[in-house]
Every structure is written in structure tokens, then in C-alpha cells.
Amino acid sequence: MDHVRVGLVGLGTVGTGVYKMLQENKDIITKKVGKEIRVEKILVRNKDKERDPEIPSELITFDPGDILENDDIDIVIEVMGSVELAMDYIKRALSAKKQVITANKDLIALHEEELSELAHLNGRDLYFEASVAGGIPIIGTLKEDLAGNKIRKIMGIINGTTNYILTKMTKEGKSYEEVLKDAVALGYAESDPTADVEGLDAARKIAILGTIAFDTKITFNDVYVEGITKITKDDIKYADELGYIVKLLGIGMNVDDKAEARVHPVFISKDHPLAAVNDVFNAIFVEGNAVGETMFYGRGAGELPTASAVIGDLMKATRDFINDTMGSSYRKIVKRKEIKDISEVDTAFYTRMKVKDIPGVFAKIATVFGDHGVSIALVRQQYRDDSGVAEIVLVTHKVQEKNVRDSLAAIEKLDVVEKVTSVIRVEEGKR
């Protein structure tokens, strides 16, 4: 045939972007892959939803079988979201020996290994570049361009909503609650922003990236997660005074044949490349033993950036289909690395506490830290209020998390300490 036949599952923001991009860039895409890519059917669930008038109504179907078990469909693109239903559809498509592309991060973070094995058994491929960081080409880069490296570290701003909120808090001095309200009004945050602000979205993405980068299996449930809801204007202010910026980072490490996977707020030095990534932009910092330090930057979400990643996968899938080289993307995990518990992770810490403004307070706090093997890099007493309570800000040297947590538990019991008000990890100390 002179064209390759595609079934599109889902016609929301990303699905509409995929269809439009295929039409707008048809000539250049056809030239690059050798055949026209033609959307034959589009599966939707809501019969009453108003759709873009540019999309022909005759392409719309409400029957999954019109795509999934249709011999006239060569490639299936899933952009509908959900987990259980998408899992069922993708399994049906792969079992029917179709190439499959998905943008579904929730699904891939949980079931990528199972689906990739099913694709392999059927001599087909599962592509999922669009599941992480929108239009930033990071998954293909890790799988192919950096495949010869031992990846030591992958660290990134991989959620635009939280980056927007922290950027506005930093630049405008507003509280988390104020900025969140603005973000919802502007459409940068969902009306229920839990998945973003609690770090769940970023956790799914770092699970996917860590699995590829470290050649092991990391699922969403393996990732330690902490969101930004407890970050205050004071934390932002102290970060600035100490030479840092506050960011929510997804962090994966490959250390001593063990893997780390975590998402949490971080004090990161102002001279680190990630510190300059603001608003809704994403960036992923990768360190390999051969390539050294690299960073990938761009829009992490949206109709066209995500559609761009889907189309890139579609072009790869089409070439493999045309050249009969399907099934070549499968990689079997040979050895599974142990995932470190957060208590075993080594990092520096910023902590803020309210204490009685009397002689000997810091000596007592320093003694507890010392008893637990925690070394203090700097300490500042910030102010004293009318009630005789002062605020102390401390930054530790790099130390195992368990030691810091045990120290703070003991410090909170001291009669001179009113409250430990904030604890935030510091990425690699001050650069």
C-alpha cells in the first residue's frame, strides 16, 4: 500500500494535536518515512462532546473493535488516559499484532515491563516517548543516544505546574496558597491539583526514566514522594539568602549497584543549570560516565509539544513497519537493582526551627546532631520575637537521611526547642 493506516484512541487535547500535526506536516512526514501516514479511525467515548470541526465525522467511532481488532489498522496511538481501560486496549492491540504508541505515563509507570514483553512476544513495539516531559526527547535519548553510558544520575524538573508555582513564589514573594489559586485560574493547575502539588505526577515520570536509565525496574510504588504544599515564603526567602533556589525535583541515582528514586522539594544552588528553569518549562539533567553532564530543556506538556513526541514515535513505528524490522526496541532487564529506602539516601539538609532565645541553645542542638553523626555546615539565628522565641536556620553537610531524622526527633524533645518548622533536602550542598 502507498500509506500506513493509523487508529487514534482518544481525541482530547493531545489526540486533537496529533491529528492536526499529521495534517499540517503531512508532506514532510511522508517524505521522511517514505509513505503517507493516514488516520483511518478515531475512537472516542463521549458521543455528545463537541469536537473540532476540522476532524471529519466519518473517522469517529465508538466501537473499540473498529481499531483494536481491525486488520486495516497497522498502528494504534493511545492518548485517552486512564489505566485499566488503556491497559486493556493496548493489550488487545498488541495481541492483534499492531504497533502501539502511548502517551500514558500512569500506565507506563506501572505496567511498562508487562506491555513491552507482550509487544515482543507478538513481534511488535511499544513506544512511549510522550509519557515523560512532553516534547523533550528524553526517553529515546536514554534508550539510544546515551545507551553506551553508565548513567550515574538523572535529575529533573518534570512537572510544569509545581515549577510555575515555585517560580511565582520566588519572584513575587507570594504564599503557596495565593499562587495555587492564580495557577488554577490561569489553567496551569487542575481544579484538583493533588497529582501535581503532592509530587505524584513527577514520581510516575522518574519511575519511567529511572527504569530506562539504570536498566532495572522502578515502578511508581518504588518512588519516595514529597510535594510542595509545605513550602512557605520563609523557606523561599532563606533559600535566596543562602544562595539557593527551591525546586521540586525528580531524582534517580545509580550508586554502588543500587538505585535511588525520589521526588521532593530541593534547595539547589543558583549556579546549577536547573535553577534557571522557570514557569511551566521542564528540564532533565543527566550525568553519564562517558558523556559527562548534559541537560534537556523544553515544554513538558501541552497539545503540540506532547503531540510532537507522539508523532516522533509514530514515525519510528512506521519505518519499522515499512522495513519489517518491528520488535527491535525490546530490551530485557538482565539484573534488578535494589531500590534504596529514603532513610539510606545521603544528602545535605536545610532545617528551620523555633527555639527559646537563651544562652546554650545552639550547644544543645549541636550536641544532638553530633551524637548522631551529623555535621553542620552553617547556622544562622534569624530573629527574636517579643515572646522570646528565636528562629535558627541550619544547613548540614551530606549525611545519611536516617541520621538527620533521628537527630531532629531528639531535638524536638529538647526543652529549649519550640518546634522544627521546616526540613528540606539540599542538592549536593552549595556549589
UniProtKB/TrEMBL annotation:
<dbReference type="InterPro" id="IPR036291">
    <property type="entry name" value="NAD(P)-bd_dom_sf"/>
</dbReference>
<keyword id="KW-0560">Oxidoreductase</keyword>
<dbReference type="Pfam" id="PF03447">
    <property type="entry name" value="NAD_binding_3"/>
</dbReference>
<dbReference type="GO" id="GO:0009086">
    <property type="term" value="P:methionine biosynthetic process"/>
</dbReference>
<feature type="binding site">
    <location>
        <position position="105"/>
    </location>
    <ligand>
        <name>NADPH</name>
    </ligand>
</feature>
<comment type="similarity">
    <text>Belongs to the homoserine dehydrogenase family.</text>
</comment>
<feature type="domain" description="ACT">
    <location>
        <begin position="350"/>
        <end position="425"/>
    </location>
</feature>
<dbReference type="GO" id="GO:0050661">
    <property type="term" value="F:NADP binding"/>
</dbReference>
<dbReference type="GO" id="GO:0009088">
    <property type="term" value="P:threonine biosynthetic process"/>
</dbReference>
<dbReference type="InterPro" id="IPR045865">
    <property type="entry name" value="ACT-like_dom_sf"/>
</dbReference>
<dbReference type="GO" id="GO:0004412">
    <property type="term" value="F:homoserine dehydrogenase activity"/>
</dbReference>
<dbReference type="InterPro" id="IPR002912">
    <property type="entry name" value="ACT_dom"/>
</dbReference>
<dbReference type="GO" id="GO:0046872">
    <property type="term" value="F:metal ion binding"/>
</dbReference>
<keyword id="KW-0521">NADP</keyword>
<keyword id="KW-0479">Metal-binding</keyword>
<dbReference type="InterPro" id="IPR019811">
    <property type="entry name" value="HDH_CS"/>
</dbReference>
<feature type="active site" description="Proton donor">
    <location>
        <position position="205"/>
    </location>
</feature>
<dbReference type="InterPro" id="IPR005106">
    <property type="entry name" value="Asp/hSer_DH_NAD-bd"/>
</dbReference>
<keyword id="KW-0028">Amino-acid biosynthesis</keyword>
<dbReference type="Pfam" id="PF01842">
    <property type="entry name" value="ACT"/>
</dbReference>
<feature type="binding site">
    <location>
        <position position="190"/>
    </location>
    <ligand>
        <name>L-homoserine</name>
    </ligand>
</feature>
<comment type="pathway">
    <text>Amino-acid biosynthesis; L-threonine biosynthesis; L-threonine from L-aspartate: step 3/5.</text>
</comment>
<dbReference type="InterPro" id="IPR001342">
    <property type="entry name" value="HDH_cat"/>
</dbReference>
<dbReference type="InterPro" id="IPR016204">
    <property type="entry name" value="HDH"/>
</dbReference>
<keyword id="KW-0791">Threonine biosynthesis</keyword>
<keyword id="KW-0520">NAD</keyword>
<keyword id="KW-0915">Sodium</keyword>
<dbReference type="Pfam" id="PF00742">
    <property type="entry name" value="Homoserine_dh"/>
</dbReference>
<protein>
    <recommendedName>
        <fullName>Homoserine dehydrogenase</fullName>
        <ecNumber>1.1.1.3</ecNumber>
    </recommendedName>
</protein>
<comment type="pathway">
    <text>Amino-acid biosynthesis; L-methionine biosynthesis via de novo pathway; L-homoserine from L-aspartate: step 3/3.</text>
</comment>
<keyword id="KW-0486">Methionine biosynthesis</keyword>
<feature type="binding site">
    <location>
        <begin position="9"/>
        <end position="16"/>
    </location>
    <ligand>
        <name>NADP(+)</name>
    </ligand>
</feature>
